[in-house]
Amino acid sequence: MERIILSDQSSRLSRETSPYLLQHAANPVDWYPWGAEALNKAREENKPIFLSIGYSSCHWCHVMAHECFENPEIAQLMNQGFINIKVDREEHPDVDALYMKALVELTGHGGWPLSMFLTPDQKPYFGGTYFPPTPKFNRPGFPQILEEAQKLFETDPNQTDIKAQNLLQKIDLQNKAGKSRGIEANRLIQGAIEILTKRFDEENGGFGSGMKFPEPMHYTLLLRHWAETGDEDTLHILDKSLTKMAEGGLFDQLGGGFHRYSTDRFWRVPHFEKMLYDNGFLAKLFLDMFQATKQDIYRETAEQIFSWMEREMTSKEGAFFSSQDADTQGKEGTWYTWELKEVLNLLGPKHAKIFSRAFGMTSRGHLDGRNVLHLNMKVESLAEAESIPIFEADHILKKGKETLFQARDKRPHPDTDEKIITSWNGLMVTAMATGYAVLGEEKYIETAKRCAEFIWSQQWKDEKLHRIYKDGKTSIAGCLEDYAYFLESLITLYETSLNYEWITRAKLLADAMIDEFWDEQEGGFFISGKSGERLVSKLKNPADEAMPSANAIASMALLKLGRLTSNNTYLEKSAETTKAFQAFMEDSPAAFSGLLSTVSSSSISPTEAIFAGPRDDPEFDGMWKVLQTDYRPNKVVVWNEKGESTLPLAEGKTSNQNEPTVYLCQKGTCHPPVNTAKALDRLLERPQEIRLNIFDENKKNAQILGDEQNNFLNAMGQIFQQSGITRPPGGGGK
């Protein structure tokens, strides 16, 4: 069979909207997108399928594409022997999840690019991740892999099919939880906390001694545990880990936003792609930590994530793009990293010396002679080491960051994947709405509402949610994560904006989610629904992976919605979901942090705050702020608008003489209504006391900086007075 080389114009991928698929449209490989055309052709011609799964910001996906898929000789082998299917994992997470599990079963590890060989009826039988064009890195060359895959299929197809079927049966068994031993909720949670404590890296924060991933659900469970118990060791793990993340190279110190993961144990050298989902989860987590501890680093980190989102990741419609690439000009991290001589030329010798010392820069660098900015020295220590006042050191660092940011902006920018993914947008809507509640910034709730309105208008069609919006087109049936994450965001929007329309939409979405994904036999939710792909195996994926389990988010969202609406169906489905995976949690509790957060929440009586009366009254705002001041993960917030009961929880709870009123119930006790912020503050149960001295240095530094600035201004004021000037020139300017 002659090889097929398709032009840009005739390539099937050129008709797709996925940036990842479009990157491969000009390959000499005869690619198909995932769908009936390719799958039917494989069956009709009885040819094995080569399935290549990746995403647009994946560095090693780019490497393999350049080395193998752009190679005409390798493409000829692929075209002659296989039906070649290219999948964007962000468009089809259910397809990716199935074949990633198959790869882990086959090889013991996974990753992207995912290179899997399937029988014509989609059963996986052979695969790996990145393969070079010739043998290297202790890996066989891709031509040898193609030859082996074809040999396995052609020599004994029946035996290959049996092995593939056995592999699928192993995967199917992962949905079978087995019999629960009935371990109590608090023991499961304590078991997870003990495992995480043992894995904690005391010196560098995070878990384990190798590469570090953000793993937000671990920290969310730890924070809930601290809020319930006051365990100081738990708070120490949280503070150490999140501070190291925020101060390390994992966080973009100039432009804001977290990279995907750290390649070392120090959070120093990241894999540089930036994903919307990481930053949605982490912004919410850092806001929760700010509520719990009142430490500025957590507020500032969340604010910088939001600034990056607004500046670089927001579509003209107000929704959020999916990711930014790790590479520019064929190299990873060039956009984000610096040679020492660049900084010297930009800042001058004195300031460059101070700046490089603060941000850990050396002549050797961290990555191919280039430096990853990370906070190496706090401003107090820096000022002492350089024998300069703290305010001067602080000014040099702030000015240096501004200068480098402006210089970086002139470089070739990383590509942005402008797909709008429903689930990931839901995560950022939740974070932005929380940002409004915690920080009081009106712009955050407006941004959240604008995004949610767009998703609802474009992606909710015929009582079904869709996953992808790109180039004016809505496509691909929503997966469980789309329904669950967006449902959570609608509930958060109600509790922060108090607009009942979000509850109306949340109920429609929750009902559709249950109808589309619920497993009537075993309980819990499948990750692909009735309207989605017909895969050879249906998964539930209850454990947290790169993203928290969609079952966990669905269960928590249904618990919240059930409490808000007093709908027993939602409460029952939430409880049945955690029950379905009880045996899994008993065997490996730390792998199920997300579900354990729901277990924790469901076992604790919620704090219910029912507002009544006019929202535009300052006292209403005052009581609202009091309620949002502290971290209360189990609170339920309702507004009885105009005295008309829209939710059963608010029935009979009206305002006195049209005054703002709050009815508070906590720990099973309901209090008389109150009308002032002070009265509400007195009623609210006190949050856990922070008894550690872990924040003393930051407070001390801030105090010293403030004292120095005051001394400087007082001295300048005396000089101006002696000169007959009443105020510094330009004092009223910007």
Walk me through what this model shows.
This protein is of the alpha+beta class and 734 residues long. It has four domains: 162 residues, Glutaredoxin; 318 residues, Glycosyltransferase (Alpha/alpha barrel); 89 residues, no CATH class; 77 residues. The protein contains 27 helices and 20 strands. Strands 1-3-2-4-5 form a five-stranded mixed sheet, sandwiched between helices. Strands 13, 14, 15 and 16 form a four-stranded antiparallel sheet that branches. Strands 18-17-19-20 form a four-stranded mixed sheet. A hairpin with a 2-residue loop joins strand 14 and strand 15. The radius of gyration is 28 Å and the shape is globular.
Summed over residues and divided by their number, the pLDDT gives a mean of: 91
* Secondary structure category: alpha+beta
Report the sheet-strand fraction.
5-15%
Number of helices: 27
CATH fold group of the largest domain: Glycosyltransferase
Tally of separate domains: 4
Main sheet summary: 5 strands, mixed
Name of the level-1 CATH class of the largest domain: Mainly Alpha
Kindly report the spatial arrangement of strands forming the biggest sheet: 1-3-2-4-5
End-to-end separation: 72 Å
- The poorly predicted ranges are 1-10, 715-734
Shape: globular
CATH architecture heading of the largest domain: Alpha/alpha barrel
